[in-house]
Amino acid sequence: MKSLPNIRACVFDAYGTLFDYASAAEKCRDALGDKFAAFTGAWRDRQLQYTWLRSMQGRHADFWQVTGDALDHTMETLGIDDAKLCERLMQLYLELDAFPEVPETLRRLKQAGMRTAILSNGTPKMLDAIVTKAGIGDLLDDVLSVEDVGVFKTDPRVYQLALDRLGLKADEISFQSSNGWDAWAASAFGMRVVWCNRYGQKLERMPGKPDFIVKSLAELPAIVGV
């Protein structure tokens, strides 16, 4: 496998890339019943739509509020009237499961001297909660939240945040995301990009192009030459 040259840091999206956003709903599958699949997709779709719409309107609210607003909309849309379930789902969003290969992948990168970071829409509190639960805090050099710039991905200011905090050029960073729109945007910004296409998505029709497409982050160390 060819590797990306001159990579000095690996920066990861959080939700869907390092952490399974569907694991919150999965733990409430019994309560959701036959609405589980529709619920999981609708909650995620509405959550992302609200980030893009708020960014376009210049009306930022943090990801915790956006996630709650999206949950409320989804439950009403699917006819689920259960305040305790809503509260439990939000709590579980602070306890998302890491994908199985994540700890070992980060460990290999750190052992090889690679810098590692998260760059996410999540709030600092949300990110601290899931990083702590996964026990990977010591494998990350930084956890970056869009709250530092007050706008969501795919605004270029978000990707610039990683450059500023890490003190690196865009092409010295390998950015990993499971979200096609995020991967393409980071590429258009100038980062080297590994798209972890966990969900079998089709290629985006947007500016940019990932350097590699993988199904698991376990493939990353070889790609960045460690």
Automatic annotation (TrEMBL):
EC number, UniProt record: 3.8.1.2
One annotated GO molecular function: (S)-2-haloacid dehalogenase activity
Reaction equations catalysed: an (S)-2-haloacid + H2O = a (2R)-2-hydroxycarboxylate + a halide anion + H(+)
Record's keyword annotation contains Calcium: no
Database matches in Pfam families: Hydrolase
Keywords from the UniProt entry: Hydrolase
CDD domains: HAD_L2-DEX (cd02588)
Superkingdom of origin: Bacteria
Keyword presence, Hydrolase: yes
Enzyme superclass (EC): hydrolase
SUPFAM superfamilies: HAD-like
Function: Catalyzes the hydrolytic dehalogenation of small (S)-2-haloalkanoic acids to yield the corresponding (R)-2-hydroxyalkanoic acids.
NCBIfam families per the UniProt record, alphabetical: HAD-SF-IA-v2 (TIGR01493), HAD_type_II (TIGR01428)
Entry's family note: Belongs to the HAD-like hydrolase superfamily. S-2-haloalkanoic acid dehalogenase family.
Protein name stated in the entry: (S)-2-haloacid dehalogenase
Gene name linked to the record: hdl IVa_2
